[in-house]
Amino acid sequence: MLPQLSGANLRQSLTQALNFCLVLTTTFMFWKGLSVVTNSPSPIVVVLSGSMEPAFQRGDILFLWNREARVKVGDIVVYNVKGRDIPIVHRVVRNHVSSKKQLLLTKGDNNAMDDLDLYAHRQYYLDREQEVIGSVKAYVPWIGYVTILLSENLWAKYMLLAGMGFLAVLQRD
Amino acid sequence: MFSTFQRIQQYCGFVTTVTLFLAVAISVSSIIQEHYFTDIPRISMNLQSIDVRFGKPHIGYNYKRQEYALMKFDLEADLTPLFTWNTKQLFVYLAATYPGKPYANKVVVWDAIIRNKEDALLSLSDITADYSIYDVTGKFNGRNATLSLEWNAQPYVGLLTWNKGSERERFAFPQLTPAR
């Protein structure tokens, strides 16, 4: 099952390895290209919490667009509070716009209170430029649940790796 | 060419392609339907009372003591034309827009989630707004404001759409009642 290191087989294996790398890098390019087009560091996100139910359930996939200089009240935005790394998907419920900046207050549909407690200490509003990474424009249900399973469930990750290894071995024969 | 593995692979590939096309077809058709074939919903609203007080707008350590406004209003709206077969929910909200220096402001005072067509006929009278309005500067100074009803249609799959009713209710923030 290991590649025999004769001339033709070696080239075949190297070609296969090269193809594999090509697939990886093309995917990466696509992802970064999408980031550039949408102007968002993370143009496709998976919903992780239930704070926007019944609109979004865990595992739904959201497509973001970040080229609007000003978001509107009622838009659903994804933001990172400065200094924290957790993206939060909530709806804009308040909006104060000046020519220089836009201050927002957000709230999850399924939460009783707005997000003031989620912001940094003494921060009363989000800054659109600095903390919002995109507003949700399109939505596909459930497909992202696989990534949640993989990241939260170690057992699922091992199963996937074992399955992929098994298929690779199977293909050789 | 005909091994089990390859058959499974081809089958999965076919299912994926068909699902993708189906999702695109659903989104595009429901967008066209929403844009061209729905009637304009009838809306009527009436602001019954607005009260400006001084204090913490909500319970919680993060809220500053400032002027805040509580409102009571009536709302009648027939939002049934907005429901297509691809509508998962309609997020309806009543927003107050008012000017200021340097900020132009817009605040949601009430919202509701409508999940099916039967519930889309709203007939609410004398309800208190869910959220109070407080300004960035902490004061209203008797500014003029406008109420409008807006909604966000969330599909089962596809693009989200936002729209608003054409009716507007104008009011002015009353001055703070001086008695404590």
Quick overview:
The complex is a heterodimer of chains A (173) and B (180). Chain A is α+β, with helices and mostly antiparallel strands.
Structure description:
- Chain A is built from 4 helices and 7 strands.
- The longest helix of chain A is centred in the first third of the chain and has 32 residues, at 7-38.
- Chain A has a 7-stranded antiparallel sheet.
- By secondary structure, chain A is α+β, with helices and mostly antiparallel strands.
- In chain A, helix 3 (145-152) crosses helix 4 (154-172).
- In chain B, 18% of the residues lie in helices and 48% in strands.
- Chain B is elongated.
- In chain B, strands 1, 2, 5 and 6 form a 4-stranded antiparallel sheet that branches.
- Chain B is built from 1 helix and 9 strands.
- Chain B is an alpha+beta fold and 180 residues long.
- The N and C termini of chain B lie far apart (85 Å).
- The longest helix of chain B has 33 residues, at 4-36.
- The chains are: A alpha+beta (173), B alpha+beta (180).
- Chains A and B meet through strand 4, strand 7 and helix 4 of A and helix 1, strand 3, strand 4, strand 7 and strand 8 of B.
